[in-house]
Amino acid sequence: MAGVDESRLRTWLAKYHNPEAALRDITTVVNHYQGLVPTQEPYIFNDGTMMDLVNLSGTIPVTYKGNTYNIPICIWLIDTHPKNAPICYVKPTSDMSIKASIFVDQNGKIYLPYLHDWAPGSSELLGLIQVMIVTFGDQPPVFARPKEADIPYPSNSFMPQPGGNYMAPYPPTSYPQSSGYGGYPSYPPTSNMPYPSYTPYPTPYPPYSESLC
Description:
Elements: H1 6-12, H2 19-32, E1 36-44, E2 50-64, E3 67-77, E4 87-90, E5 96-98, H3 113-116, H4 125-138, E6 142-144
Antiparallel strand pairs: 1-2, 2-3, 3-4, 5-6
């Protein structure tokens, strides 16, 4: 299994309900998208329950207006995988900010019909990633934060400096969320670290165009 320590992965999946199916799903993804790497980390559910889960973390190639961008994501596999849909996030780097939409909330959590309609036997990780690539190629989920030197400021020093959130959250309205273990968890432990705040003078990532508004 190129790029994957199968022995370690089997150890991580030992407590999963269907470890062989999860192993096959992960292997297929890693063979197609080498920018994603499997690892095991603790995940905290809404009810405070913590569980060690396997995730695929890294980047996927997304083509936007003829250019290919590496979009950082993290896919968490529930221990019932593939019976239940994974939990997915966009994970912006320090020089990116999240562009909230009906597909991605302000915390980076991803909402897609493919996830909402997840069906054991017909839904799998490779198909999910392909849907992400198409969706994000139409609506990029992140934009680049400008360097401080590139941010224009008013010439009058007594004028208030721009600040605050650039975008208001745009929570999904068509995909229900459940709480607690057995449904969709809230955030991984690292979510307590704040994402970069929005700037009133954003330079999108990919490059800005009216279609991103």
